[in-house]
Every structure is written in C-alpha cells, then in structure tokens.
Specification:
Radius of gyration: 39 Å
Strand content: 35-45%
Number of helices: 14
Largest sheet: 16 strands, antiparallel
Number of strands: 36
Shape: globular
Distance between the termini: 96 Å
Length: 869
C-alpha cells in the first residue's frame, strides 16, 4: 500500500534528548515487517557531508531491514554520538508492500564564525592563554557540552589565580542569515576581587612552631598580620581594619602614615589562595614531618572559612605523633657484599632520626653520591632489588630489614641508536661506554648520556637510554634515543674599532665530514655527520684592516681512539691604506699556523685530557709606530703549549653539576741563554727578532645545583708571563689585558683579552705614559647564580646574577691575590645554535681606577660565546 509522501513519518526513539513526532499510517508497531530500502536521503544539514552521514548510519540502499527495528534505532544513535546535531527525525517518504524510502531530517548545531571573544576587562596575556586552553576555532561546533566545558576551563583558570568568586557568562549569538558559521561566542568574565588568605590558624603542633609550618607552606601565605601593631591603639586598629576591609596593603600604609616609625609593619608575600597549590603544600608539610622522624604525622582536619568576598581563613589541625629513630638495620639475601660493606654505603646508624627519604635515596638512587643500588648495578646486577621492611617498633625505635634479591649478572646483548638523522652512527657509537658482551653498568649509561650531550649535536634534555632487560637469558638490550639539533654557527656582526666600522663574517661547521667531501649527494648543503669541525672567519674594515683564519679539527684521528687532531692557519694585515709599494705605507703583517694533538687520559680518571700544540707566528712591521717597542723589522714566535684539563660538567650549554679545571704552560726556546749577544746594547727590533717567554695559566669552574634548576657557578682564573733572561726583560708580547667584555681591540701582539664586568674595556690593565703596556700576571674570581628561562636547545635562555673581582700587574713583586677590583650585577645569556651564546650584562664596579673617572660604576657589556668568562 502506498502512503502519501508528504505527511507520513515514523521516528524511532533511542535517546531521550531527541525531539520526535510519531504519526505513521499503515504500519503495525506490534507486528514488525521486512522492507527493502529503496532510497535514503538527508535533509536539513548544510555543513555535514551526506556521504559521511550515510556511512555513519550503517544503512545502504537495497538492504532489507525490519520496521520498526534495531537497525534504524542504531542509525539514529550513531548520528547522535557525533555531537553535530540538535535534532534528528526519520521520515518514511514512500512505502509499498516490499519497499521503503527513508528521509533523515537533521538539525545541526550552530558553528563558530570566529574564535571566542572575551570581555574587555581581561588582559591580553590571559586571553591568549585561555584561547590556547579552549582550543576553539572558526568552524567548530557549538553544543551544550562545548559551552559547559568552556565555562569550566575559564572559571578554573581564574580560580587558580586566586579569583575564587569569579563569574563566567557565555553569550551565544546565533546568525540566522544563512552564513556558513552561525554562532558568535562572547565570554564575559567578572573576576571580582582576588581572594586572599587573611589568617592561617595552626593547632596540634608542638615540635614545629607555627612560623616554621607557615614557611613550609610555600604557595599558601597569609596576606598580612592583623594583630594590633606596636604603638597602634586598639580602637584605631579596629577602625582602620574595618574601613579598609582587611586590605593589608592599604591598612598598613594608613597605619604607617599615622604613626610613622612607631609602627612595626610586616608585609608578607603570596597571599592568593589556590586549591591546587594548597593541596601540594599540605603534602609537602607531611613529607617534612616524615623527614624529621614523625612517621605518623597527619592533618586531622583543615577548614577554609570565608570571611567576606575578599578574604578567607584557614584552620589547620595537625597530629604530629611520636618521633622515631632507627635502631637496627639487618640485611637479608646479600651474598655479593657483607652487611658491613652495605652499611658503609647506607650511612644509617643506630639513633639516627627515622627518615625514609634518606633510606630510599641511599638504597636506590642518591644523586649526590654512591648508593647500594649503584654498587650492584655497576657490577652487572641489573635485576637487583632492595626492599626495606619495618620488622619491629619498640617505643620510639624502629628495626629495619632490607630484603635483597641480587639476581644474576646481566650481560649486554645489543646496543643501538635511534633518532639520529644527520650524525652518522659511528660518531655516536664511539662515545657509547656500554658495549655488547660487557657486564651491565648503570654508571656507563649515565656517562654515555653525558658524552652524547657534550657533542652538542643533540638535545641534551631529550637523550633517553631505553633499557630492555631479558630476565630469561640474563641479557639486556640498550637503545639510546637522541634528537638532532643544529650545531653549525654563523657569525655576522659589525662593530667599531680603530675609528671605523669593522665587519665580521664567520661560519663554523661543527659536524663536518671530509670523507663525503667529493660526494655530490652529501652536499645538503654541506657534507656532514662525521663529527669534524671546520671553521672559517674573515674580518675587515676595508683597505685598512683585514684578517682571515681557518681551522679544522678531527676528534678521532684514525677513527679508533679519541685523539683529537687540529690545524689552523691565519693571516692579518693592518695599514694606513696605502699600497705596499708606497714608501709612506705603515703596516703590520701577521701570519701563522698551529698544529695540535689531544689525547683522552684514563688516569687519574677518564675525564682528563692532555693537549699538545706547536704554534708559529710571524710579525712583519713597516713604519708601524704603535703597539710594539719598534716600528720596522720582523719578529718570530715559535712556542710549544702543553695543556692538562679535566671536564666533568653534565651539559655544555647549561651545566648543573660537574667542574672544569685547566692548567697550561706555553714556552718558547730560551734563545738568549744560548747566545753571546749583549742584549743591553741591542735595539728592540734585534732583541725581539725571536720572542722568548714562558706563560702559565690556571682556570677552574665549578657547578653546584642548589634547588631545581637553580645553579651556582664559581670560577677562578690566573695567568703569569715569565722570562728567561733578566737582561732581555719580559717581552711586550702575549700579555694580559683585563676589563670590560673581553671583545675589544685587536690581539696583534698575541695579547689575551679577559673580561671583568663593571669596568670599561682594558681599564684594569697596567699603563704608562704612552698607554697600556699589559699585565704579566693577573687573577680573577667569579660567583654566578644562574636560573633558566628556557632549556629548549633551539633557544636556551638563562638569567644570572654575579659578583666578580680581579686585577692585573706589570711586575710580579706588585702581585696581591686579594688586591682586586670588585663588581656585581645581573645578566642574561641566550644560546642560538646558529650564533652560539650571546650575552648582555649590567655590572657595577665598586673600585675607582686611578686616572680614569668613568672606568667603573654602571657598565653594560655585550659578549659572544662566553667572552666574559
């Protein structure tokens, strides 16, 4: 039987939220029948693809279904679950004895025309943060769930900031003009006043005072002290308090105005209330009690009392319980080490305060030293377990039994690397201390992680060793996951020197590959991946000054041992700009080369390296009347340098632990001791035809992690330039120039430029009537407190505060290690892989420089690649 198409419908109700009408003629609901679907159409939806809707229903034309039946019910349910529709109706547009045509009428939820708007009283920074949290964009569906979620996110955001009474209203404006996106969403926020903690009342505490407990609540602080202040009559205190409604800032300011120095004011910070931080602070408080031996300490109750719309009180009721002590520690299951040996590592004696945190650290992982776990795991016992159990409690004393499962020693089966897309495998593998066939060692894994970070090819924060043990055969696979980061650097800068602008262009390719130099496919843009370093640099201000240098380093000469081979060449010319053939030309030409070989040592430990270098430099002067003691002639500097250094820092860019120590000596042959010349009668050009000296340097740098990523860095530097022959005197070459940013001037005579913040460039350097003569001895001390803003390897940023002191002297007899120029200040360091470490510091020099009024006090300094260090 055919039913009129326009008025017959049936609707299968599955979800209570669906709006439905049931008015079907000719269908017996008590006796379902089978129909073949003749046609399926969708109406009412403008933004949803019809093919997707059909796919979601699970129905298809030609299919036989039962009406009424489960398949149509399931089709409606599937469409409803998508969250795209406000209403779904199903019509039978045509029915015969054997066939049926269906129409799904869909009413869509509106969609956003643009990102949500916020009321004008919300700051831009908050708007940006909220939009990121909401993650709503043009075209997104707006339904009840989205609105509820958005309101909750906004409200929680401001509650966490201390606005506990904030009101959030979502105003949705529907566009009925047929626009594709039919809704505009305005989020109106009334933050009201920030809710502060007026008073924290603590009861039940005997061992810890209320002051100490409040100090332990790091993020939960009182806004002020509201007891009557010294010198303030109670009636005035009451009237002021009521007038300012407990606003601590205005209240105390008014009290100070009325009573000046007679009033004792105490302003406390961080008064806003945050439920999340309060929960953390409570846990931290109980943890502190546990560390002090109060293992049963607990918070019996805590109550938050609303005083008014702006202030709350917190009542904290504690139960400290009894203080406990260690009495005896027994070891069960240990065969590798005796109880005495294990006790020496555990470092817990009878009568020590019962501190489970210390017990766990000394058993399993102690970042400050050796623990029992590392003792076993560094000897292959990967499956080692140590479980402390309380076996007896007598009075205030507790007996501990440490139950050990030593397991078998595990051997390394396979070592692999994952994530390197540029650096070749062999460059990474040669730095890995974990080798197949060796016993497993946790120390080797920690050391490998450090060595890979020192390469600077990978993100040091994301080097992750994946340890995959196989207890069945007693082996372990280790995979080191790395993430490549850029290590090449570009130097492009302009500066002012010799009265002109000087431009510098330099490139350093820190992961170069000579092996692939002649392979066309490897130039992307340069052959790379073998860990070699190639550096080229040029500097010029036109015809008056040019300098060029190039260097190459192979860190593993021969590929089998960590013997670093390096070679460099350089050339510079400074003149008055006239041609070389002109007799009036004034110039100095310098060229030189050096060859070095470094070796990693195994004694005293394998953090030591020994480096040898032979360096030759030639000076040719023509009518050159500055810097040197003579104006025409040639000088030669042939020297040998031996450097012993130790580097155990954990990361190259932002170290948190470890140290760097370096001692070096550079020496030329003592020509004058084997010569019969009378140096008292020789001209300076003849005296210094072959330069002679011996030069000693000693540097240390220590890093200590204080809390979190806050790091203290202590540095010292010392340098001394000596002579062989007193009649010849100390050469005017290779001297020390102290002060400023360490970037100023030209090192034409081999001078060393040492930064000292808070003083102008070179100002802390010996002078005579003709200018600076350079120091033959200097020292420098530095303390820096560092805190990172970003540890992203593509943009590492940290702030620092420093105290610094140093001085230099022309004669050794004038040297005084504590006769120094002092300074202090703040700075910032930014590491960009392309440019290296850039720094900006402000320093204040406390000590005057004789004859130089503006050399100290407030000074700004710019540094490149740690030039100030």
């Amino acid at each position: 039987m055919i039913i009129k198409r326009s008025l017959f419908l049936f609707l299968i109700l599955l979800c209570p939220a669906l709006k439905a009408q049931v008015n079907v003629e000719g269908i017996d609901y008590s006796t379902p029948r089978d129909y073949k679907i003749k046609k399926i159409i969708f109406t009412g939806a403008r933004h949803t693809d019809m093919n997707i809707c059909l796919l979601l229903t699970g129905l298809y034309e030609g299919e036989t279904i039962q009406v009424p039946g489960e398949k149509i019910s399931k089709a409606i349910s599937n469409l409803w679950k998508q969250g795209l529709f406000d209403d779904i109706k199903v019509y039978a547009t045509e029915i015969t004895e054997t066939e049926i045509s269906l129409e799904f009428n869909l009413k869509e939820h509106p969609r956003l025309q643009e990102a949500p708007l916020f009321s004008s009283n919300i700051k831009k920074g908050d708007v940006d943060n909220l939009r990121e949290k909401l993650n709503l964009a043009k075209g997104d569906v707006v339904n009840d769930n989205v609105l509820l979620r958005s309101k909750t996110i906004v409200q929680n955001y401001f509650v966490d900031k201390g606005f506990l009474n904030c009101d959030v209203k979502l105003i949705e404006k529907i566009d009925s003009t047929g626009n594709r996106y039919g809704s505009k969403l305005m989020i109106d926020v009334n933050k009201h006043s920030r809710v502060k903690i007026r008073k924290i009342n603590i009861t039940g505490n005997d061992f810890l005072s209320s002051v100490k407990i409040k100090h332990k609540l790091k993020k939960t602080k009182e806004s002020s002290v509201f007891e009557p202040l010294e010198g303030l009559p109670k009636f005035l205190y009451t009237s002021l308090r009521d007038y300012y409604k407990y606003d601590s800032t205005d209240f105390l300011r008014a009290a100070a105005k009325h009573f000046e120095d007679k009033v004792v004011l105490r302003l406390l910070k961080g008064a806003k209330f945050s439920e999340e931080e309060y929960t953390k602070d409570k846990a931290s408080l109980i943890e502190k009690y546990n560390e002090l031996g109060f293992r049963d300490a607990k918070i019996i109750s805590d109550t938050i009392i609303k005083k008014d719309d702006r202030f709350i009180d917190i009542n904290l009721n504690l139960q400290e319980g009894k203080r406990y002590y260690f009495r005896k520690v027994d070891w069960i299951g240990n065969t590798k080490y005796t109880a005495s040996e294990l006790n020496s590592i555990l470092k817990i004696s009878k009568g020590d305060i019962y501190n489970l945190k210390v017990l766990e650290a000394n058993l399993n992982y102690n970042p400050a030293g050796v623990d029992v776990s590392s003792l076993y795991m560094d000897d292959g016992y990967l499956f080692f377990q140590a479980t402390p159990v309380e076996v007896a409690i007598t009075g205030d004393s507790i007996d501990i039994e440490v139950r050990i499962i030593e397991g078998k020693q595990a051997y390394i089966n396979k070592v692999s690397v994952r994530g390197n897309t540029k650096t070749n495998d062999h460059v990474i593998i040669r730095e890995i201390r974990s080798k197949p066939g060796q016993l497993f060692s946790r120390a080797d894994i920690i050391r490998t992680t450090r060595e890979l970070a020192q390469l600077k090819y990978f993100d040091a924060e994301k080097i992750q060793p994946d340890i995959q043990p196989n207890p069945i055969d007693g082996t372990v696979d280790i995979e080191y996951a790395v993430q490549e980061t850029s290590s090449d650097q570009l130097e492009l800068s302009g500066g002012w020197g010799m009265g002109r602008i000087i431009g510098t262009l330099g490139v350093s390719f820190n992961n170069f590959s000579t092996r692939n130099f002649f392979k066309k496919a490897a130039w992307q843009p340069l052959p790379s991946g073998d860990g070699q370093k190639l550096s080229v640099r040029a500097q010029s201000n036109g015809a008056y000054y040019q300098a060029y240098n190039a260097s190459f380093t192979e860190p593993w000469l021969g590929g089998k041992k960590p013997n670093a081979f390096s070679i460099s060449v350089y050339y510079s010319v400074q003149s008055n700009g006239l041609k070389a053939s002109d007799a009036s030309r004034q110039s100095i030409n310098i060229w030189g080369a050096s060859v070095g070989l470094g070796k990693r040592l195994t004694w005293p430990d394998d953090y030591f390296t020994l480096y040898h270098e032979i360096n030759y430099r030639n000076y040719k002067l023509q009518n050159y009347y500055s810097t040197f003691n003579f104006s025409n002639g040639t000088s030669n500097n042939l020297n040998y340098t031996l450097t012993l250094s130790r580097n155990s820092i954990d990361a190259p860019i932002y170290p948190r632990s470890g140290s760097e120590v370096m001692v070096s000596v550079s020496a030329t042959p003592p020509y004058s001791l084997f010569s019969s010349k009378d140096y008292n009668t020789l001209s300076d050009s003849k005296k210094y035809e072959w330069i002679e000296y011996h030069k000693w340097k000693f540097n240390t740098s220590w890093f200590t992690k204080l809390a979190g990523n806050l790091v203290l860095n202590a540095r010292t530097k010392f340098g001394f330039l000596g002579l062989y022959n007193r009649s010849l005197g100390i050469a005017p070459f290779e001297r020390f120039y102290l002060g400023g940013d360490g970037l100023s001037g030209f090192a034409l005579d081999g001078r060393e430029l040492i930064g000292l913040r808070g003083y102008s460039n070179n100002s802390v350097t010996p002078r005579n009537n003709e200018g600076y003569v350079g120091g033959t001895i200097y020292n420098k001390y530095t303390l820096e407190l560092r805190y990172p803003i970003s540890l992203n390897p593509m943009a590492t940023v940290y702030l620092l505060g420093f105290a610094e002191a140093g001085n230099s002297w022309e004669r050794f007899k004038d040297f005084g290690p504590f006769d120094v120029k002092r300074s202090a200040g703040v700075g910032v360091r930014i590491f960009l892989p392309m440019f290296g470490v850039l720094g900006l510091d402000w320093g204040y020099g406390f000590d005057k420089i004789p004859g130089m009024d503006g050399a100290n006090k407030s000074q700004f300094h710019f540094s490149i690649n740690q030039s100030i260090d």
